[in-house]
Every structure is written in C-alpha cells, then in structure tokens.
Write a structure and sequence with these properties.
By secondary structure, this protein is of the alpha+beta class. The chain has a domain of 92 residues. The chain contains six helices and five strands; from the N terminus they run H-E-H-H-H-H-E-E-H-E-E. Strand 4 and strand 5 form a beta hairpin. The chain starts with a helix and ends with a strand.
Amino acid sequence: MKKVLFVLMALCFMSSLAFAQEATEPVAANVAAPIPDPIGLDGYIIDNASMRANRDNLDKFLKTYTKEVALATENVNSGYSIFANNQGYPLDKESCAKVVEFLKNPDSKLQVRVSAKQAGDALSVSSFISQE
C-alpha cells in the first residue's frame, strides 16, 4: 500500500511540473509592435492638435497643411508627429524642438524622411531630410 501511495504522489508531483508554465503578461491587441532601431520613415510632419482635429480626413488635410500652420504657437505647443503608413508616430520633446528648427529653414518641406529610434511611446529623431 505504501508503494502505491508513493507512486501516486510521484505521479501528482510530475504532472504538476508538466503543467507548470512561466507567467507571461498578456499582450493587448491594439498595441503596436516595437519599432526596430533605427527606423527610416517617409511621411509628413504634422502637429498633434491638427492631426487630432482632422483625423477623419487627414490625407485631404495634408494637401492644404502649410509650414506656417505647423509653426503657429498653439500647434508648436501640442507637439509633433510623423504621419506615415496611414498612422501617426508621435515624437519626443527633443525631436519636437528639432522639428521647429528644421521648419524654420526656408528650404525645408513638411514631407520628410526621418531617421529615428524608439523612445518609450514616442520616436526620437536623429535626422530630417526634405522630400519632394
């Protein structure tokens, strides 16, 4: 009887090991996958206030969006994103300051190629190149 009890206990112990799993955090379905570093994006510079206000017709809005609008004080204060691949990629504070300096250059354009790295929920841009 002791042997049977010992065998049953051993089987219970082994089955508990077989079903033991490492705890993992659930992944939300709407969270974007991390962006590989560095990333190159071709898109448009747009301030966050304008992007929120025109999210339903952003493609049409970008055709009329100007650097002067992007540099308006209230728009500068809202921060900037790069609109590419039909979504907005928010920029960190340092990158937003770089956007302002970039847009003050008379030869700069809103359509850009950026080189950036992921910085939490935002992108940290290392360079902007105007596109035609």
